[in-house]
TrEMBL record:
It comes from the Bacteria. PANTHER family: GRPB DOMAIN PROTEIN (AFU_ORTHOLOGUE AFUA_1G01530), GRPB FAMILY PROTEIN. Pfam families: GrpB. This is GrpB family protein. It comes from Billgrantia ethanolica.
Length: 181
């Protein structure tokens, strides 16, 4: 499979959940180190988010990385350097985003990493960490989310955007809960 075929296959990859893999934190650590080494001045902090950051949570086996930067201008300035560092992106998709920039790494036709570049300690930064931390702290809520994810993956297996949108109400309900800090 050539690079173009691998990318197209990764873009079209269906929603497929797998059971939690204890190797996911190490995969995140390796990517964080790779990013911090290349962008030491630009990246204020790098965090593991998404379902692969929640022990026991079934997930699409794609490591979600959130990189905090000083401003969206810095995020925009990182576009080309991130592309040169092994990421790909959709210019059209990013044009629709006001609070983050999105990038993907892939190998052998599969997504391996999603990178969300956001303003450090901004609203989106805090929301993503609050959601992750709430599910890490509350096994009952985590199990509710796992059940929802399984149902939505079976319903929206060929539509990643619909799958993500359908999780939104649950995510908002967790973020709205009182003080999870």
């Amino acid at each position: 499979m050539n690079e173009a075929q691998s990318l197209q296959q990764a873009i079209d990859e269906p929603v497929r959940l797998v059971e939690y893999d204890p190797a996911w934190p190490a995969r995140f650590d390796a990517e964080r180190s790779r990013l911090r080494e290349r962008f030491p001045a630009e990246l204020i902090e790098v965090q593991h988010i998404g379902s692969t950051a929640i022990p026991g949570m079934p997930a699409k086996p794609t490591i979600d990385v959130m990189a905090g930067v000083a401003s969206m201008a810095v995020a925009d300035a990182l576009f080309q350097p991130l592309l040169e560092h092994g990421y790909v992106t959709s210019m059209e998709f990013n044009a629709s985003l006001t609070d983050r920039r999105w990038f993907m790494r892939h190998a052998n036709g599969r997504r391996t990493h999603h990178l969300h570049v956001v303003v450090y300690d901004g609203e989106l930064w805090r929301q993503r960490l609050a959601f992750r931390d709430a599910l890490r702290a509350d096994p009952a809520q985590a199990e509710r989310y796992a059940a929802l994810k399984r149902e939505l993956a079976s319903r929206h297996g060929t539509d990643r955007e619909a799958y993500t949108r359908a999780k939104g109400e649950f995510v908002r309900s967790i973020i709205a809960l009182p003080d999870w800090s």
